[in-house]
Automatic annotation (TrEMBL):
<dbReference type="InterPro" id="IPR042081">
    <property type="entry name" value="RNA_2'-PTrans_C"/>
</dbReference>
<comment type="function">
    <text>Removes the 2'-phosphate from RNA via an intermediate in which the phosphate is ADP-ribosylated by NAD followed by a presumed transesterification to release the RNA and generate ADP-ribose 1''-2''-cyclic phosphate (APPR&gt;P). May function as an ADP-ribosylase.</text>
</comment>
<dbReference type="GO" id="GO:0000215">
    <property type="term" value="F:tRNA 2'-phosphotransferase activity"/>
</dbReference>
<protein>
    <recommendedName>
        <fullName>Probable RNA 2'-phosphotransferase</fullName>
        <ecNumber>2.7.1.-</ecNumber>
    </recommendedName>
</protein>
<keyword id="KW-0520">NAD</keyword>
<dbReference type="GO" id="GO:0006388">
    <property type="term" value="P:tRNA splicing, via endonucleolytic cleavage and ligation"/>
</dbReference>
<dbReference type="GO" id="GO:0003950">
    <property type="term" value="F:NAD+ poly-ADP-ribosyltransferase activity"/>
</dbReference>
<dbReference type="InterPro" id="IPR002745">
    <property type="entry name" value="Ptrans_KptA/Tpt1"/>
</dbReference>
<dbReference type="InterPro" id="IPR022928">
    <property type="entry name" value="RNA_2'-PTrans_KptA"/>
</dbReference>
<dbReference type="Pfam" id="PF01885">
    <property type="entry name" value="PTS_2-RNA"/>
</dbReference>
<keyword id="KW-0808">Transferase</keyword>
<dbReference type="InterPro" id="IPR042080">
    <property type="entry name" value="RNA_2'-PTrans_N"/>
</dbReference>
<comment type="similarity">
    <text>Belongs to the KptA/TPT1 family.</text>
</comment>
Amino acid sequence: MNTKSISKLLSFILRHSPETIQLPLDANGWADVNTLLHQCQVNGHHFTRAELETTVAENDKQRFAFNEDKTRIRASQGHSVNISLDLPPVTPPEFLYHGTVPKFLANIRKTGLQKMSRQHLHLSDDLDTARNVGSRRGIPHILTIRSGDMHRNGFLFYRSDNGVWLTDEVPPEYIG
């Protein structure tokens, strides 16, 4: 398997469906690396530990993280499975950004941004990342989020290991 295929498989398994390969995750989303490799092999997904390490190291969005001794792995964010990343709340910058496409704008302006099936809504602190995220579905439209105001009004923010800003929702009045 190439690194792109391994990354897509890891995203699916570690974020959304570990039961597909009977992979246990702990309460914080960590999986044993040897178990992951074995269960992938048993289920027809053949890659080595070296290929796994290369995939994690070279992933452009740093979607995955190893623990210090590389015996456990987890997705950095984006889970639909019920886990706790155990991130402390942090103060966000005054403005964060969210990339979307024009067809969603009317609904976003009415109801705000929602986490949908994920555990958190993802925001970026730079325009290029937001633009790249939005462009996955077409011509991107960048929303400016008044995250500083949200924080002062009691909304919690977290920052994942790979720098993605996480929150539960963005009401429409905070979207510029």
